[in-house]
Amino acid sequence: MIAQKYLSPRAWAELLLLSCLWGASFVSIRIALDEVPVAWVVAHRVFWAAAILWAVVALGRLPLPKGRGTLGAFVVMGLLNNILPFSLMAWGQLHIETGLTSILNATTAIFGVLVASAVFADERLTARRALGVALGFLGVATAIGLDSLAQFDIRSLAQLAVLGGTFSYALAGAWARRTLQGLNPVVAAAGMLSASALIMVPAAWTLDGPPRPDLAPRTFIAIGYYAVMATALAYLLYYRVLAMAGAGNLMLCTLMIPPVAITLGALILGEALHPTAYLGFAILGTGLLILNTRARRRVAA
Q1: CA-CA distance, 111 to 115, in Å (whole number)?
Q2: How do residues 105-124 score in pLDDT, each as one tens digit?
Q3: Residues with Cβ < 8 Å from 56, sequence gap 6 or more?
Q4: Minimal CA–CA distance to 266: which of 13, 30, 10?
């Protein structure tokens, strides 16, 4: 029997810190959206995060990849893991609460299981996984609400956009496993963020003109937070926690992000969620715990 990897106090602390960093990113992005168009919100995020990660690569003298195939893999990864999900979720936040966005964001793990089972032979959809996935989608339907399902409007479209972003994250996970195996993870993150910046900065400039220098101080702080803390630093912390705790335990982060985002959304933005959103998160969380139990059993001590 494979021994289970348990979380040390240090791993728990860093997992909690990572959850707080990502949970607060939803609020900071919503603040930035008051003055900054969606395209520039995404462009700022990937550009500044890429610059910081390349500085880490240079300081650490990490080996760089070679070959056009890797560069192409970075472009696809940038589209799937940065440009599409960041853009869809940012636009969605214009029309739904940050707390609800964070709840729907938790479906990344659900879609990840489905994509992996369709792509990889060693990730078949067992009865346990099927139960976890079913509960996950039931939780999503509950959080969205029957009214939204029956009456399609801009709010419904925003929620579908967020779900589209989580599906893109799942595709990115499968793509990374196929194409980026063996690369230093910090180099891989810097590469995909650079590819994203090379696409998003010209796109934002074309769509919305040059970046505005006259933003409110809180908008600059919000941009700095989600680009530096919730993207560049969070990537570095993510890989540390992954090495200490394993992928199965890291899934717990998905459950800890929404409470942070919901609390900050209420305190800073004055948001309030419908009770069905909390019920949906409880059901979704149950599904994720079922999936996490399976994942943790596969992790070697």
Answers
A1: 6
A2: 988 888 988 888 888 887 78
A3: 62, 186, 190, 236
A4: 30
